[in-house]
Every structure is written in structure tokens, then in C-alpha cells.
Queue: 4 jobs
Job 1
Amino acid sequence: MDTRINDFEQIDHKTCVSICDAIGERLQQNMRTETELPPRLRELVDELRRRDDELH
């Protein structure tokens, strides 16, 4: 089952920011700061950053 949201406009900006913040907090809790992100996770974080920049 593919539950991915393909259209960014399906959720409002406030909800999107809340989800991203929650994911960021969870990542900070589970990963040590000196640990390098795996390449795929780094790509996804970069993509989130690009999409966020496009919305602003």
C-alpha cells in the first residue's frame, strides 16, 4: 500500500510544518550529533529543504 502524499497541496502548510518538526525532533533524539547521516537520508532531508524553500 502506497500511502505517500504525491500532491503537496493535500495538506495545509501548518500541518506540513508540524510533521516536519516532529520528524526532526525524533531524528535528533535517536541520532547522535556526531553521526553522519546515511546518504539516502541526507538526500531526503535535502529534498525536504528544497521543497520548503519553494513554498516560501
Job 2
Amino acid sequence: MLVGRESNPMYCLGAMSWYFFWIVGASGLYLFVPYDTSAVRAWSSIEYISREQWYWGGLIRSLHRYGSDAMVLTMMLHLLREWCLDRYHGARWFAWFTGVPLIWMVFSSGVTGYWLVWDELAQYLAIGTAEWMDFLGIFGQSIARNFLNPGALTDRFFTLLIFIHIAVPLFLLMAMWVHILRINHANTNPPKPLVIGSSIMLVALSLLHPAQSHPAADLGKAIGDLNPDWYFMALYPLYDAKGPLVTWAVSIGASMFLSLMPWMAFRRKRRAAAVVTPDICNACGNCAADCPFGAVVLRPRAPDATGQAKVAVVQPDLCTSCGMCMASCNKTNPFLPHKGEARPTAIDIPDFTFDVMVKRVSARTHGLVGKNRVLIIGCEHGAVLDHLKGPSVGVLPLHCTGMMPPSLIDYVLNKDLADGVLVTACRPGECFYRLGPEWTELRMNGQRVPKLRGAVSRDRVRLFWAASTETKALMAELAAFRVALEELPPVERPESTKRRVAE
């Protein structure tokens, strides 16, 4: 890929929408200064900066136009991608549901912006929108009648119009903040290479194909040929062809359908939320910091024997059962002493507890033979692991690779359950639970707690990101890893481990 994995625009569509919003906002503030809100000079004030000051004013206007189009494009691609990746069910309903009104706000901002130019295209949009609104019958008198008389429009209309064009984006900004309110570590800043590339693209497009006005609006004349902006005006031809009833039915019906999608019958079954054991929790805060959706919070606890002032609390309606909180807990360690059958930890996933994970590791590595035995730990949403099983290879699929504590790898190698561990997950940016690959990589590299212990040989641990369609690539990586393991010197193990192996 030309831009690299980190700067893949498909992984940053939401952040790119934010970036284009700021481009549009900043350029809009500049255009507000020379704009004349009088009915007779609105068009000429825009025309002046577009032609007489093309080197700056015209550039800013074009950036405003193309930045708006780019925001619509990234917004719709972001919606489509989240739907394709099935990331709108369960705890994610809030972000999806609050994203639908954003579509209306963005389109309203764009259409009112075109009105301000007051050219023939603005005249067409104004009359069409007014007739469209009149169909609802919610106004005391017809709005469209104001556009039938050439002298009916006054300066007050354009003053009101520019107020609306400023107010709607302000509400849009607030709604965008609400949209990401339940997303922990929400990324609203795209990578620098992507920012630079997008900026160069917008400037180049603005210089090569600058935004230009149609002839000035004249309510006494018929409208000539138009060059509409299809990013914002796709519904107007439908209105012309089918009328307001069909247009309202399509727009409202599509909005209702999108809003109700998280609760439709074909959604996936929701897993049980994580559970905290207060007596073990030491309020370290790792789980709250790592949860992708802010489902875990620290709250004051009643006085008890632990002596801690706070305790982790799970909000079930926000929990996706990804298990990243379990991996981040400093009590999730297979080496810690435990009484009874189960290994307790401060926070756990009911249908895949840490004790079950450790037991499955033992079961999946039992009976492996050869000098280069490998345990593959991966994600159920990534590459299919079952095809990789073999006499020397065991596989352990997890809800998300992010639920694997680094101490588990230490346990596998220290106990001689395998000669190497291959950790795989969805590619960063494609994780079903958002942050699994990122947290896993940071923990393995010692950049985020809990860290992989320094005594663990990094030659015997390998990370490889693979999508569900990249099983063959994962098989090739496994073969290369096993060859590398065979060339490594034998591991010096404690006497207790040698006796266990001999027995």
C-alpha cells in the first residue's frame, strides 16, 4: 500500500470527517467577512472574491466547497464500513443511532450554504426546498410564495439565512461530540501523512477546478442549465420527478431504517458483560483505561477489608465482552497462587473466564510433538485458525486477542507447553472491538501495562496481523516461524520443569 497501514484512509474515515469539518469551519469564517447579506449584493460579493481575488479568496471558497464534499464522502463511507463490519449492535447502538441525525445536519448545512451564493442554482434549491417543506403543512403560510415575487426577498432573509448556516454547524459540532461520547480513546485526529496528503489534494483541486457561481438569481426569469453538487443535491431530481410525497418517504424511511438497525432481528446475540470481584480489585484503573467503550469506571467503594477507596464497576449496557479489561488487570496472572479449582481475577468474562483460558491453553498444547511446537493465539474475527492445527501446532481462538494477558505467553514458554507462541489478530483498524491489536502490540513491546516480562525470549514470540481472508498468509508466517524456532538453541529450564517433562 502506498500510504502504509497506519495512514490507510479507510481506517480513519471518522477522523477524516472531523478534519474536513475543521477545514470547512475555518474557511467559512473567512468567507463570512467579505460576504454582503443584502439581497442585491450577495451574489456580487461572492463573485468578487472568486474572480478578482482568485489567488486567495477564490482558493478559500473552493476549499470550503470541496472540503464539504469530502466530509460527505468520508461520512457516508464511514457509515457503510461500520455496517459492513457489523459494528453497530449491542453497546454500539448509541454511536450508530446518534450518527443518523448528523447526516441531516450535514446536508442542511450544505444546502443553506448554496443558498447564500444566490445564483441560479441557489434559486432552484430555494424554490424546491420551500415547496418540499410546504408539503408538510406545518407553517402558517406557504414558504414558496416568497420566491414567486421578485421583490419579496429582503436583506432580512439573507441575514436569517446566514444565521441558520452558522447555527446548524455549531449544533453539528455538538452532535459530533455526543456521537463519540461513549467511545473510549476516540480518534478525531487523522495521521499526519493523511492530513498532508488530503490538504494537498484539496488545494490542487481548488486551483485546477475552482468553485464558480452560476449566473445571478432572478426570480422573474426561468432557470437555465445547472451544474449541481451531487454530494448534497441527490434528492432534488427525485423531487422533480416524483414529487414531495415520495421524496419525504424515501428520506424519512431511510433515516428510520438506519436508526432501528441496531435492534433488528438479524443482530448478533449479545454476550454476558464483564464481572468485577470487589474483594480482589485494587483499583489500579488499568481496566478503565483500556476499555474501548468506557464500560468500566472507578467508583467509591464502601469501607471494607481491602482498604481501597475505589473499585472498578462495569456498566453492562456499554460492555461488549471483548475481554480487554481482563487482560489489563494486574490480578490476571497464571503464576499467582490460587486456592480451589478456579483462578480468581479482579475482572472476568463470564463465558470465557481467565481460568478457562489457562485450562484451554493446557488442553490445546497437550500432546504436541516435535522440536518446534507452536501455540497460535488468535481472534475469532480474524484469520481462521482451525486450518492450522497439526501434530506440532495448537490453536486457541479468543473473543479478541486483546483479552490475552502477556503473562499467558510467559506461562506457556516457562512451563514448556510449547517452543514458541504465534499471536495473531485482526489488522489494526479492522478490529471488531476497535483496540485489540493496538493494546496487544503495546503490551508485547513493553509500552503498556501489563507488559510481557523481560525474561521471555522475544525470538520465541511472534506477532502477525491477519484478516479473515488472509489464512494463507498466516500459514506462511507459521511455517517461517517454525523454521526460525528450529534454529534457536535449547531453552535452559528450571529443574522442576525438567522433572515434569521427564515424567
Job 3
Amino acid sequence: MNLHQTIPTRPPLYAVTLIDRRTGYPHRVNGAALTAFSRDPAQAARDLLAGRDPNQWHTRILPLTGH
């Protein structure tokens, strides 16, 4: 790479967690919060909510930083 080339950047990474609206807590599977890590958080949220009642579930999207 020469000095005039730029390093390609990737979209930021996000943690998308499934939240139970009744409790306000993350849904857990074997004690671990159900979380997807994705560079496309909207698609990850759709995937986590697929087949679930939107009155009972929502997602929390948090950006992950490398700092």
C-alpha cells in the first residue's frame, strides 16, 4: 500500500439483544442473554423478532467501539 491509498473501513459493529417487554430484561438461553453481533443491526433485530409477538418483545441495539 502506498501513502496515498486509504485503508478500507468496515461498518461499525453492534450488539442486538432481545428484550422481554414484560420484565425489561434480556431473554436468556442457558443463562446467557440472547444477543446477536452484527454490522447490520436492523436486519439482526428483524431476525431476533421473527415469529415473536411484538407486544411482548423488542430489541436493544448498542454500538460496540474498539476504544
Job 4
Amino acid sequence: MIKPHGAEELSPLFVYDTEKHHALNAEAETLPSLLVSSAAAANAVMLGAGYFTPLKGYMNLADSLAVAKDLCTTDGLFWPVPIVNLTKDAQGITAGQRIALRDPNVDGNPVLAIMDVDAVEVVSAEQIDFMAENIFGTLDDKHPGVQTFKAQGNTMLSGPIQVLNFSYFQADFPDTFRTAVEIRNEIAERGWEKVVAFQTRNPMHRAHEELCRMAMEDLGTDGILIHMLLGQLKPGDIPAHVRDASIRKMVEVYFPKNTVMITGYGFDMLYAGPREAVLHALFRQNCGCTHLIVGRDHAGVGDYYGGFDAQTIFDEKVPAGAMDIEIYRADHTAYSKKLDKVVMMRDAPDHSKEDFVLLSGTKVREMLGNGIAPPPEFSRPEVAKILMEYYQIEDAKA
């Protein structure tokens, strides 16, 4: 199987040893506490689950600035996005302390991890802006990722962590949340060697379904990992439980058995476009995938990124050999009325816009809210039914 990034084997930071786990939970009750941001909590979950191998904890300021600028830590590890614990409230916390990190997303704020604080650094407004602009390609406060990043605070705590739980992800998504360790194990059990990953924060329409098939056929893979984000999203995005139900229905009805793994990971969406696409590739390699589908405006939002910026970053900013995973470059996919099937638009040069079934997100939302299923060329009826029920309940609340 493909090796993890920068390591011979995965290094999950979750404490699996039961005795040690109990002892750390008891110790946590005696330690100073910090209620972390949702972003820092999501980083802890990803570190705990092995997705961020080979990192041992949160980055310090020098590494964060180096990663933002050059996609590389100060000691030469390729990494696309700073993995940080920024806070507004570090009063009384000093380097050399052990502290308990508490979860902002679960009632009662249970201990998420114990941290050995190596450094407590004040980050200047200029440094915050420098990181934000490099990560997101903009400083526009309307960008949801920029908003979230800049709202966390300007004190950076760095150091190794020991993770004690996976926040709300295991409880809320018991059938879907998986660690990188669990995904690797299942890939091995299935006997898959070549695996392509599909990243999603949305329900999958017909074009996404066919794109997965195209990638599997073109690459000759043994299977596909449909890997959905389960964490925080911007307002208006479809919640994870609805997306999960619709994807499961689509796979159950339209894919052959033992060709798809439906899983999810506990991370908040960054909406960082190209940089996030590279992060997506890196942690899919840690899952054991050999390929990642990168389509138009992968991980984008609004008009902040060019249609193929998330593909060209792999040519322009990812050094040769930095990662072993490869990307499958996809164009916009849509149903061709001429050919009576879903195609990539680049493969249909003789088509005009009118030859495709194209619907805007707003139009689809309107139809679903009114109990009208989009055409079957756009959305499978079984998927449309789940989405219609969700939108009709939402509209009734409004």
C-alpha cells in the first residue's frame, strides 16, 4: 500500500491504550484548561485520527509562516496549510505547561486533548494577514475561510498533543466517520491496491456519480473512497446527515457491491480552493489512496479561484516527489442531450451550452423546495426525494 506522507507508517495521536487513556483523562481534570476554536478542535481530530501524519501537534509561528509562504515547514516537511491553535484567551498559559484542550462543539466542553505547550507566541496583524492571504488567495472579509481564520485570535500555542476523543463525529456519524487508520485497514481487508478518492461537502448529483465511474475506469482502480467532510460549513450548505443519506442511497442503487467505501472525516471546511485541494490529496495519501479526483473549482467558494487553479497548483507549487498520491484531473461534467450520457465538457468540443442539461444551484434549490425533482439527467430520483424532504422541512421553518 502507498506509504503515508513523510513517514513509513501512520502516526495517529489518539491515545488507544485504555489504561493510559484513563490516566490522561484523570490528569486533564487537574490541568489548566483552554476552550479551543472549532478550527483548532478539528485540527486535533485530524491529528488524532492519523490524517495529519507525520505532525505531532500544532505548528509554531515560524513553521506556520513558512508553510503559508512556501508549503514547507522550517525543517523541510512539505505541508500546504498551517495546522494551528490560535486563541484570544491564553491568559496564564506559558511555555512548558501541560494544558487540557476543551471542545467548543460538544455540550459541557469535554477534554479533547492534552497539550504540552512548547511556545506561546503573539501573532501580529500583519502576520495573520500574510498567512490568510497565502492560504486563501484573498483578504476579502466576505470569504468564509478568511473570516474564520482571522476571528480565532492572535495568540498561537504550539506543541505536541495527545488526543482523547474525536469530538462529536463518532457519536453523530457512527456509520460514516472513520480515522485514517480504519480506512487503511479496510482498504487492506478488501484487497484493494489502486484506490481513487472523491472529496465532497455536497450531495452527489448525477454528474458526480458519473465522474467517479470515469475516474475508476480511466485509472483502472479497485475501488473508490467517497470521503465526505463532516465538520462545520458556511450557512446555506447542506448538513452532513442529509448529504450522508443521499450519498448512501445513490451508492446502494447505482454502484456494484464492493466498489465504494462511504466514509467521512472530522474537519471544518476551509474553502481554501487550491491550497485545500493539496491538503485533501495529502491526507488521502495517509488514508491509503493512490489518486484523488480534483475537479473544477475544487474546495472553492464564490468567484475567488479560477476553474482549474486547484489542478495547476500541483504543477506550479508542489515539488516533484513531495507526495506519492496522484491527482485525476476532471473537467466540469454534465449530461449531454446529444450523446444521452454524462460527459466531461472538454470531451465534447462540438457541443454548445444548449446541448447539456445545466442547472444553477439556485434553480435546483428552488425546485427541491417546491417539491419538484430535477430532471433525472441531473439528479437521481432517489437522491432528489431525500433532498426535497430536507428543503421542504427547512422552508416550513422559515
